[in-house]
Amino acid sequence: MDPIICEAAELEVEAYPLLDELTSKISTLNLERVRRLKSRLVALTRRVQKVRDEIEQLMDDDGDMAEMYLSEKKSRMECDQSMMGFRSNDGLSVSAPVSPVSSPPESRRLEKSLSMARSRHESTKSSESATESIEELEMLLEAYFVLIDSTLNKLTSLKEYIDDTEDFINIQLDNVRNQLIQFELLLTTATFVVAIFGVVTGIFGMNFAIPFFDDPGAFKWVLIITGVCGIIIFCAFVWFFKYRRLMPL
C-alpha cells in the first residue's frame, strides 16, 4: 500500500509543472509527455480504487477481520491441539484396566459440570478478546482507508486538472485555426481584387483597334479607375464579412 501512495505523490509532483509548461508552450514533445502521464494516472487510479474497495469490503465483514488477526488464530490452533492431545490421553486412560474400586457417580457429575463451566468461561473470554481484536484491526483499517481515500481524491483532482488543460489547449488551437481561416479569407479576397488588373491587362493586350487606345493618357486613367474599383470591391467584401460575423473586425 505504501508504494502506491509514494507513486501517487511522485506522479502529482511531476504532473503539475508539466501541465503548466504545456499551457505556455504547445509542442509535440510536451503533448507526448502528457499522454504518457495520463496513461500512468489512469492505471494508478484503478489500482487505488481497487485497494479502497477491498478495504471497504473487509471492514464490512467481521468474519474476514477475525481471520486476519493471526495471533488470535494461532492461539486458537494451539489450544485446539492441546485439547486434542488431552482427549487422546484421556482415551488411553479409559482403555487401561479399570481398578476394582470405581469413583462414585457424584464425583463424575461434579467433574463434568466443572469442565463445562470452564469451557464456557474460556469461550466467553475468547469471544471478548476476539471482539477487542476486531476493534483494533478496524481502527487500523480505518486509518489506511482514510489515507487511500485521500490519495484517490488527489488523483481525481489531478485527472480533472488534466482534462481542464486539454480543454484549454483545444480552445487555443481552435482560436489559431480561426485566425488562419480569416487570414485565408482576406488573402482570397485580395487575390480576387488583383485578378481584376489581370483582366484589364488582357483587354489592353488584344489586337483590335480602339480609338480610345490612341490617347497617351488613356492607360493611366484605366489604371486609376481599375484601382478605385478594386478598393471598393475589397471594402465591400470586408463589410460583408463583418456583417455576417465571419471575422471579428
From TrEMBL:
Region listing for Disordered, in residue ranges: 90-130
Tell me yes or no: is Ion transport among this UniProt entry's keywords. yes
Instruction: State if Transmembrane helix is listed as a keyword.
Output: yes
Q: Which domain of life is it from?
A: Eukaryota
Where it mainly occurs, coarsely classed, is: membrane
Please name the GO terms that the record assigns under molecular function. magnesium ion transmembrane transporter activity
Q: Which UniProt keywords apply?
A: Coiled coil, Ion transport, Magnesium, Membrane, Transmembrane, Transmembrane helix, Transport
Q: Where is the composition biased (Low complexity)?
A: 93-105
Coiled-coil stretches are 34-61
The transmembrane segments are: 185-209, 221-241
Q: Where in the cell is it found?
A: Membrane
Q: Which InterPro entries match?
A: CorA_TM1_TM2 (IPR045863), MRS2-like (IPR039204)
Topology versus the membrane, per the UniProt entry? Answer: Multi-pass membrane protein
Any one GO CC term of this protein is: membrane
> Which CDD domains did the record assign?
Mrs2_Mfm1p-like
What Pfam families would the database entry show? MRS2-like
Record's function text: Magnesium transporter that may mediate the influx of magnesium.
Provide the family line. Belongs to the CorA metal ion transporter (MIT) (TC 1.A.35.5) family.
Q: What is this protein called?
A: Magnesium transporter
Recorded source organism is Gossypium australe
